[in-house]
Amino acid sequence: SAPTLSEEIDKLYSGKTVHYLRSQETADDGSSPPESRREEKFLDVQVPIEGCKTLEDALKKVVGVEVMDGDNQWFCEALGRNVDALKGMDFCEMPNILCLQLLRFVFDFTTMRRRKLTDALSCPLEIDLNFLFGQDTDGASHIYELSALCCHSGTAHGGHYHAFLRERLDEAASRWCDANDATVTVLSHDQEQCLFACRKVTLDDGSEVDGPRAVSSSDAYFLVYHLRDCRLPPMNDDEVPELHRREILEDNIRLSELQRAYEVHRQLTEVKVFAPTAAQLALRKRVAQQLQGLTGDDGHGEEDLHAEPVSIALSVRATKTVAEIHRRAVDALLAAAAKRDGEPWPWATNLAEKANGGSRSRLRRFNPQTGEAGAALDKQYPLGEALGTGSSTPPTAALATPLILELCGLNKEFEVYDENLASVVVCRWDDARQAVALGARDVLRLRLPRALPTAQLPDHQPPSPEPHAEEPAAGDEGPQDFDEENMPDLFEVPAKSTPAKATEDTSPLVATVREAAAAALGLAQTPSLVVLTGPHAGNALLDDSVTLLQATRDGYGSWHGSDVLCVEPRVEADRQPQSTVLFERVRNTAHITFNHPDRPEFPEEFKISVSKDSTLSELKAEVAGQLGLDCSQLHIARAHKAPMFKDEAKTLRDLGLAEINFLFVGHGAPCSVDEFMLRLAFYTPADKGGVAKARDAFSHPAKGTSSVRSLREALTVPLQKWAMELQSAGEKTLFDVEGLRWKQLRIRDGQAGKQFAVLRDERTLRSALVGLSDGRQVAVQILDQDEELTPDDLIVQLRPWRYETGNLYAPSEWIVSGTRSLADIREELTARFSGLLILATTTGVAGEPAVADGSTVERASEGGTVAEVPAVVQNSEEDRLEIVALPSAGGPFSVKRCAGLKWGTCAFNASDPAALQQSLSELPNMRDGAVLVLRSALHAARGPPAEPMAAKSASKAKAKGAPQPKGASIVAAATASAKARAAGAKAGSGVAPAARREQALVIRVAHPESGG
Predict the structure, then answer these.
(1) CB-hemisphere CA count at 13 Å for 501?
(2) Cross-strand bridge partners of residue 486
(3) pTM for the whole structure
């Protein structure tokens, strides 16, 4: 049952540890130091191995003691205080089977990735673990022997597992096995000695001797040890209950049957035999793939190319003769043909007739990718020997070799296969269709004698040959899987490559190919040969004295028979072969997909084929004709939101579009060459505490030489049209559509990092928008009143700073004339930001007593909300506004930076009336975008500024404070508190002021009509 099984597992694998926290100070009564203990059960132990050379060192880290002192002291409840303590873990119970998981995978905080520790760790065959028990050892023996070792080869992101297992034969003998997936190998004595070598132990005199045997591995991941003194008692067969004994015997019988079936299956191999037409079909398929676009669009001769070649699979013994396999293959193919509906295959009828004679078919090697048949198999040999493996049991690679059944006519002889002959693929030119023919009799593979080895190949490849992808020859291995365990070293200096030795060019002569092709295709005259694949594709082979390798690849490499030659009747000397003309036309055609302007999310909805020498206007006319739209109201770009193409007189090659397969088609006429398509966004200023926003609106063309003012004038109608579209969609517009005037528009730079800078009317777009190009974003703000900036106007940012609370308010734009005097500007800003100042008077607000420190109070406004107003101060000194310009260079804008500005030397704060008469434009660094910081002079004179976090804390304290007093006692309490703080400020000259109040006072004024 499940509970019983759980108990048995606990007996074998479960152990206990004790986690302790022990004070280093004795108890107050002098007893032993107090400690905290917690027991925990485990089934396996996590062992950190980083920096360890042996398993013993790693286990000592598990029971290592951590000292908790300083800021990391332990709060001891028994002592009632923080004390220095020792933190650690001891083992109190050990299992019979101990599982250790080595922590090889760690997280690297430098690279922020997982990585594997590949340091070798020495794990002994026998280990004494008494040192793990600390003070709780019971004196029993804890000697463990290694039973299993699991290894992980690979990286932290993938790899392979295999294990070494110890199999006990009897009480004294055992053997080790290597379990790797489904393969289990018993290690020999020498392999065991190599795997578990003796450790080297260094003595006190420095000499080394052999120590205990251990396995040193950089891949060891999981260890299983068993207690040496724990042995399972032997059990006789009669002690097993009858029910269980019967089940075991039945399982053994089934296992025996499966083992016999497996042995039979091991002697069987699956042979795939293709029908006689498979070679021609595979060759035509391959040629059709290589000659795409050259075989015509009518599909003539390609009707059967989509069908799979007929084949059958046989499970045969490797010791069977080829004759037996041949007979079974013929019977299986005839049976498959008999089950076919419709007309029988011609080869099946012919095969049935030949089967009566029994000698007109044979089996040959076959490459189903290239369609090339290899050597014939001798019928008298077993399959393994016939395939050339030299044994009756061929290896797996040989067994996987496909075969083809070849037929021969009654009065004909089988072709004698000669591996020294060269393979050449030719196809016929169809003059009626003006394309390459792909019929069963139009594509042939010729086996031709090689030329005499008179020419030597070059020692190296040409500097930059045209790339060409060749099909692998029969028997070549495909691409190898990525081996993560043997990754190349990125920092390894590559060795200098040695030039390949020169080899002999033995490919057939062009004259030999020409004569053989004419005879095979039944041409009366000597034909023209045109190579249609490879580096020289499209060229006619004119020189009969050179080899194919020299004519098609300039003599480099070797001839594999992968190139395709077109055979057509010879033409006059001053004319090009028709296949060459077709090749040039196909190679010069671009196949482009495009979208409908209303559906940009479907980029491959339409397709068109045009010449690569066509102009953009011709391409656009073809696209518009297919879409049924007006050509003049379309533009073309590489992709959505990419710059549009403007010069439509250029060809696709000139624009770099000859090799692309997709173009974007959009609504709207293209810009002229000197125009740019701007992306307009609707600008919304920042609310209180918020940020400015820009919403994408529409695109608008503009010339780089036009002024910002002309852009303002041109955007009125498009903005009205855009707003009316929003209204029709049910959205609310933020401005008066019908009464919109161009002078209400303010143009800003919408590019990221430009802070929505205002663009001046007199500047050109090219000078105002640095890096102007298609897609540049421009923001439009709509003002409540007309605005027309003059050259003397400056656009500055105002940043009020409430010194006493540390609040830096959001910036606000201010347009001011540079000819105004500093006194005039300071007077206007003082009136505008009077809330920052301390009002000097002898009476309070609304007849209330004055507050002595200039702090703000809250009062009810007419709308019923609570507003913050400047407090009234009983003070003989009048407050004034201090202004300073923020330097363009510096750290982030903060209270600390504002406090370090040169407030005393700024011209705005001069006490001399004559100095305040200079104009704003005379100040250095005063330009558009300059920031003016404003604060109270009296608050600044009282001490350092408040930090924003302190202000927040005070606000929270105010929100959580006790109920506020009512009536006149509020004013009295405020007055007394203000006087005390004022006295403290005077007495504390030169030192930091006293801490500000933690609770704010709220004065609530009841409305006369409220009845309260």
Answers:
(1) 2
(2) none
(3) 0.49
